[in-house]
Amino acid sequence: MKEDLLDIVCCPLDKSELELEAIRRDEGEILEGRLVCTECSEEYPIEDGIPNLLPPDMREESAA
Amino acid sequence: MSDTNDARTESGLDAQTQRKIVRERYARIATENSGGKGGCCSNDDSRCSSAETAASADETARQLGYSEAELESVGENANLGLGCGNPRAIASLSAGESVLDLGSGAGFDCFLAAREVGETGRVIGVDMTPEMVEKARANAGQNDAENVEFRLGEIEHLPVADEAIDVIISNCVVNLSPDKPQVFDEAFRVLRPSGRLAISDVVLTAAVPHELRADPDSVVSCVAGASTIDRLEAMLTDAGFEAVDISPKDDSEAFIRDWDDEYDVSEFLVSASITARKPEAVDE
Known about the structure:
The complex is a heterodimer. By secondary structure, chain A is mostly beta strands. In chain A, 12% of the residues lie in helices and 39% in strands. In chain B, strands 1, 2, 3, 4, 5, 6, 7 and 8 form an 8-stranded mixed β-sheet that branches. Chain B is globular and about 50 Å long.
């Protein structure tokens, strides 16, 4: 995901702002990292450039 | 397991089951790199198999109202032939607008929208199926689409900030949701005042035959989960939308008829253009 998109993403649960913790970047794009909710501290992973903003219960289901 | 959402489900399935089977079906379609013959994918799995070619998806798209130029302008992998209309055609997009696609699939409508909103605009696609989002992201590279972003998310729990979006588009997806009122509540929340909703989806014109109502195949192929026009109008109004308009597409019978082998679903299902607007000033 691109960093400037950060201003319009939010936590899917409480709609609070997310803080970016980038692990790997490429030309202004975040390829690996996580988005952390500033309110509920839920962590949303960014993998292969795709932020996984599914509610946590859905996320576990998809990993199965 | 009890789920408070159950009562709102149109189909005879509980919400969790409905989400799961929809996701599995579309993950399979994404992985097999092909679309169905019918709009939202037909009930016959063989049509969703790898034998189905891009040419057939293009043919479906033509029936749905996409122009040759639109088809040619987007790489072939983005069009899976899973829609039931052309939401972008009813959205009247302008340069610089922010667009959100609910259930963006492989990204076809997003890439077309991205051309219209241009470099100053942006398009965000949300889909709950990891395989679809991966495919869309790969297609974004091919289409040189700088202003398009995809993310994994659920349309009932949009990961999008309040009042961040000018136009919401969606193509044959909302019927798949087990909780449509929540989808519309979320759509309303993320739209800016005067923001627009422009959706293509199937609506019921008569009751679904009892045997189909709780049939998982029928739900995932966009038949049993559909709502009536009256019900959808009520949901949109309850969510706060104004200027709600649900117009059935007269010519949709031809392609909807093929969605089920046993039933002529066009007897109770029609594709419609669904438009609505968020009021300019919302009472807090």
